[in-house]
Amino acid sequence: MIVLVVGGAGYIGSHAARTLRQRGHDVMIYDNLSTGHEFLASGFELVRGDIADLVKLSAALRRVDSVMHFAAHAYVGESVENPRKYFRNNVESGLALLNACLDCGVRRVIFSSTCAVYGIPVKIPISEKNPRQPVNPYGVTKLFFENALEAYDRAYGLRFASLRYFNAAGADESGEIGEVHDPETHLIPSALLAATGARRELELFGTDYPTPDGTCIRDYIHVNDLADAHVLALEHLARGADSMAVNLGAGRGYSVKEVLTKIEEVSGLKVPVRLAGRRAGDPPALVADPSLAEKLLRWKAMRTLDDIVATAWKWMQRQSTRALSP
Ligand code: UDP
Fold this sequence. Notes:
The chain is of the alpha/beta class. The protein has 2 domains: 2-169 and 220-248, Rossmann fold (3-Layer(aba) Sandwich), CATH 3.40.50.720; 187-218 and 251-324, UDP-galactose 4-epimerase, domain 1 (Alpha-Beta Complex). 40% of the residues lie in helices and 18% in strands. It has 10 helices and 14 strands. The strands form 4 sheets. It has a 7-stranded parallel beta sheet, with helices on both faces. Helix 5 (137-156) links the parallel strand 5 and strand 6 (159-165). The longest helix has 21 residues, at 83-103. The protein is globular. Bound molecules: uridine-5'-diphosphate. Uridine-5'-diphosphate (UDP) is lined by residues 167, 185-187, 190, 202-205, 216, 218, 256, 279, 282.
């Protein structure tokens, strides 16, 4: 297939682009580099453009048969403070992208969705049957796009896969690409930065949750397991399968304390921790029931928490070498 990876210079998109290429597909990357990085797209044809730029986008879309859409803002806290930014990019520009797909004859869209569409889950592990009741603007924008895909499928025959990620983490095993966020707020890179002394400490958000050790439980999923699922979903649709919405998680949760212990074990360094209050909007536990993805795509997480932390650590060490090189 010929695939336009929109947002392919970002964290998950860049890993998906490589996996697509390894599986023999042709890949073009489309990215405005607002949060993406050119070096994450190196080796690929990169069209630098915004999804709101219809002329540029349409020219790229006419050259492909499928789209993977990663171009969205993804900070929960920021979406609460600046919802306008989120509705403009994730909804308005997202819809412009979807309409352009229709107009340019693209008939398959793989969408980067999130477990945030479930909000505070009524049941754990979370299956796709859980009601979708997002509790922040970020989740609302993702749910909006899922709903648009469903309507476009029924009305226009556009086939899609909405892939609801749990906690994406880790980096490519090569050490060449990985997570680069500014600001970096995620647990694993933040803890590694604290371990190396690049940050004074890791703030541990909440130790009074109703979990065995009092800290939040999350389902961490390696970015290359996510990338594999994207390619499998695309190939499944190309074989004539129906559209789908599936959870992508390992189906196993770890507490923040367990993750910190693993980070210390893998890096051999101590993570300086400061106990802080709960972060607004953090549910105590989010764990996927990934059985639908396993059934439909024959996919399941192959990489462990050890792999996640080891690759994130390798990536961080490479990054500091890169920063120091002239
Ligand atoms: N967390 C933390 N300190 C940090 C960052 C995260 O204690 O500096 C906790 C956070 O409260 C959550 C878990 O680690 O329970 C994972 O947070 P992250 O921001 O990585 O992902 P999220 O679950 O928000 O998507």
